[in-house]
Amino acid sequence: MDEPHLHEMTVGELVDLLSACDHDAPARLAINPLFPMAHRIGGVIAAQDENGDPLVFITEAKDAEQVGHLPPDVAVELTWHEPTEAPARRRRRATGPRDDGS
Q: Is-contact 41 25, C-beta < 8 A?
């Protein structure tokens, strides 16, 4: 059941967004916000929903192979993860003998 306040992207909106991208770049699906992975796209299928309205599915490749983790900056842009920074590094103490002979 569709919720009236949720906007679903249309094929036209998707085409517009894709038109601004490098046409030779591989297209992938970003899957699973809790453990973000990238998947190959298998194809596009035109269908109808239960009311007979047109619907389009972007499908996963038949081999369903994950092609790696989603880059962290993509997960942040999708708001799946919070931006993080590496912790500040502290200078470590030397473990060998000191130069002053002790």
A: no
Answer for the pair 75, 36: CB distance below 8 angstroms, yes or no. Answer: yes
The rounded distance, in Å, linking the Cα atoms of 75 and 37 is 9
Closest CA to 54 of 11, 13, 14, 2: 11
Contacts of 5 (CB under 8 A, 6+ apart): none
Does pTM top 0.90 for this prediction? Answer: no
pLDDT tens profile 63-84: 767 788 888 889 899 888 888 7
* Structure letter (DSSP) for residue 7: P
Token representation of residue 33: 């916000």
